[in-house]
Amino acid sequence: MQNPTKGLTEQPKQRTTGESLDSRSQAVIGVDLGGTNTKIGLVDLTGKRLLEFSRVKTLADRGPEAVLSNLSASLMVLMDQAKDKGYLVVGVGVGSAGVIDLNKGVVITSPNLPGWAEFPLGERLRQRLEVPVLVENDVNCICYGEYLFGAGRELGDFLGIALGTGVGGCLIVDGKVWSGGGSSAGEIGHMTIQPQGEQCRCGNRGCLETLASASWLVRRAEKLLRRGTTSSLHQHLEGPRGLSAEKIYRAALAGDQVAQELFQAVGASLAIAVANVVHLLGIRRVLIGGGLANAWKVFIGFLHRELERRLTLMAPPEIRVVKAQLGDNAGALGAAYLVGSRAALEATSDPGK
Ligand SMILES: [Zn+2]
Question: Which of 12, 133, 169, 214 has its CA 20 to 30 Å from the CA of residue 252?
Fold first, then answer.
């Protein structure tokens, strides 16, 4: 995939001898803390440039203390690299899945990070790194990254949807992430699409997540195959690696009817959710990212068709649906500029922090 941030990467600065600490350019670090991989970006705060990007294993199965040690070690190395380039790291922003207490930097619960109930990630990282740290929801960070550098640049206000293991959402309004006064704004994944549908991990039935996430796509396919439905997907069912969203995508591309119907449900369910948001907010732009968005070709047609049926108060062609562009970089970039920069600013205005 083409990476639009590639051009942002800057060559190391030459430092002049005798340069004082105060003359160093300010940089912030953005962290996209995922269940498997953690992506880390070092960015120039004023020049809006990506200086370094790396990824490390999260080690989520070893618990929060191990993740914290591993992450802070990587961040300390990066802070030294920043110093060598002539930059001073003034803040760190972390995007994490789950319900986050933004003010306290606490991960309240996270499906991808077992054992993290009420873990004070922000404060613990701040103690180790001795720089201000703020924590945000990961999808908000991804959308903000796309808003600054990716497919969201030209959109203005938009609804962002992240299709992965679950379905996340975010609203960008007037250049800001709409937080709704709590931490649940934009949680489109738990909008009811089928009142009598399957039970979601949140407790509700028929959530968008049960119809349009990668994990549920695999579950639904397995269920259909075990019922005896004829499909080329049977060859993967008992195989050592089992089914995956990617295999279902490839089968759909090759003309497998079951796989195509599964993606029809993805597209149609997304359209119902989008139409509901459009009717409520009047938003006309939608950005879709996440791993499952790579199956764009096999669901976007169904999404547009269903939008035609569901949008009754607005002409469907007015709604523009675009695919995210940044891939892996978006979350770290968004975390850096959305909360890393704010952490730095808050520390400046409150020296006691
Ligand atoms: Zn749900």
Answer: 169
Ligand 1 geometric centre to CA of 199 (Å): 8
Q: Is residue 18 part of a domain?
A: no
Amino acid at 213: S
Question: Has residue 148 been placed in a domain?
Answer: no
- Same domain for 181 and 161, yes or no, is yes
Q: What is this structure's pTM?
A: 0.86
Query: 144-182: per-residue pLDDT in tens?
Result: 999 999 999 999 999 999 998 889 999 999 999 998 877
Q: How far is the CA of 297 from the centre of ligand 1 (A)?
A: 26
Give the H/E segment covering residue 333: helix 329-335
Q: What's the one-letter identity of residue 164?
A: G
| C-alpha of residue 193 to centroid of ligand 1, in Å | 10
β-pairing, 158-163 vs 133-137, is: unpaired
Domain count across the chain: 2
Residue-by-residue DSSP string for 120-159: -HHHHHHHHH-S-EEEEEHHHHHHHHHHHHSTTTTTSSEE
| 237 and 96 together in one domain | no
Helix (H, G, I), strand (E, B) or coil at 170: strand
